[in-house]
TrEMBL record:
InterPro entries: G_CP_dom, NA-bd_OB-fold, P-loop_NTPase, Ribosome_biogen_GTPase_RsgA, RsgA_GTPase_dom
Record lineage: Bacteria, Pseudomonadati, Bacteroidota, Sphingobacteriia, Sphingobacteriales
Keywords tagged on the record: Cytoplasm, GTP-binding, Hydrolase, Metal-binding, Nucleotide-binding, Ribosome biogenesis, RNA-binding, rRNA-binding, Zinc
Enzymatic class: hydrolase
Positions contributing to Zn(2+) binding: 281, 286, 288, 294
EC number: 3.6.1.-
Record-given protein name: Small ribosomal subunit biogenesis GTPase RsgA
Length: 350
């Protein structure tokens, strides 16, 4: 038997369940997604569940269950079930689906904190941290930067300077699995019942970090490649694990690219500390590119805003606008198609 409150079950989720037509059935949380089924943690234990046809064919792919989702299921065997409903999501981490302009993919749902993991070697990339942070803030998830492999030689001055424009908005932890004492502050930030998703590129040590926090080998790991100097990819799916006496941890496969799936460019203005400068621009609709009287450009010219930060802001804003426009156009087409379908039904009835 599992105590689902340890996995994040709450009174609010109970109230949401009461709105479902299937409120009399069992509920559980998706711990992993496979190609044809879902692993679900429930009070009955761990089950393998499949979707009803209505869910599988009646919803877009990003609305299908992802790791962390709370679902309602009908058991039909000792360790099998059928998912009949999905509770409304909150704090869901998305990313733009590879090769698309506006399609998005759900990474993890009902997330409280996101550990943005970077290693203090050649993998360190502040621009990548910014990308993850934008998407995390989009869903009001608390971002935390975790820098691994601090036992290696690195320039603390360079790292702190690179993160200066972000560190005031989130904690930054320097860790090494070879020095357990460095993990203590990180462990204290994980509260029982909270859900933490680990995101980052391949080789930064997400799985090793989770194993160390759990004090057991939960996920497979591999050594860094001597040829490329990069970690070998080990995680192949998004998977949830319960940390003893603490929160829920979700490991995710490393990603080379993390496309933005946000339609709120305003988040960027606040995140990059551009808002204070922007409020002093001559024009209220200033794009901060080449307009006269732009306080943001002035801040770059007088050294108050780093050029690399400004350029990253423009790049991510452009990507966000592109996703927003594509999403708007897609919804417009869907509404038009639905209207034509409805009109066709009315003609047929006549």
């Amino acid at each position: 038997m599992n105590n689902l409150s340890l996995y994040g079950w709450s009174n609010e989720l109970f109230r949401l369940k009461q709105n479902s037509l299937h409120k009399h059935l069992f509920h559980g949380r998706v711990s992993a997604v496979n190609k044809t089924n879902y692993e679900v943690v429930s009070e009955r234990g761990l089950l393998l569940c499949e979707l009803t046809g209505n869910l599988l064919y009646g919803r877009p792919s990003f609305e299908l269950p992802c790791t962390g989702d709370w679902i309602i299921f009908q058991p039909f065997d000792q360790d099998k079930g059928l998912i009949v409903d999905i509770l409304p999501r909150v704090h869901t981490l998305y990313r733009r689906k590879s090769g698309t302009a506006s399609d998005k993919q759900a990474i993890a749902a009902h997330v409280d904190k996101a550990f943005i993991v970077q290693s203090l070697d050649a993998n360190f990339n502040v621009r990548r941290i910014e990308r993850f942070m934008v998407q995390v803030l989009e869903e009001s998830i608390q971002p935390i930067v975790v820098l691994t492999k601090s036992d290696l030689e690195f320039s603390g001055h360079y790292v702190n300077q690179s993160l200066a424009h972000l560190s005031f908005q989130m904690p930054v932890f320097f860790t090494s699995i070879h020095y357990p004492e460095t993990l203590l502050p990180l462990r204290k930030s994980i509260v029982q019942g909270q859900t933490i998703v680990f995101v980052g590129s391949s080789g930064v040590g997400k799985s090793s970090l989770i194993n160390s926090l759990c004090d057991r080998a939960v996920f497979a790991t591999s050594e860094t490649s001597s040829a490329s100097g990069k970690g070998r990819h080990t995680s192949t799916r998004r998977e949830m694990v319960l940390m003893n006496g603490s929160g829920v941890l979700i490991d995710t496969p490393g990603v080379r690219e993390f496309g933005l799936a946000t339609d709120d460019p305003g988040i960027l203005t606040a995140m990059f500390d551009v808002a204070d400068f922007a409020s002093s621009c001559r024009f209220a609709d200033c794009r901060h590119v080449d307009e006269p009287g732009c306080a943001v450009i002035a801040a770059v010219n007088n050294g108050q805003l780093a050029p690399e930060v400004y350029n990253s802001y423009l790049k991510l804003r452009k990507e966000s606008w592109h996703f927003s426009a594509s999403e708007h156009e897609k919804r417009k087409r869907e509404r038009s198609f639905s209207k034509m379908t409805e009109e066709a039904k009315q003609v047929k009835k006549r």
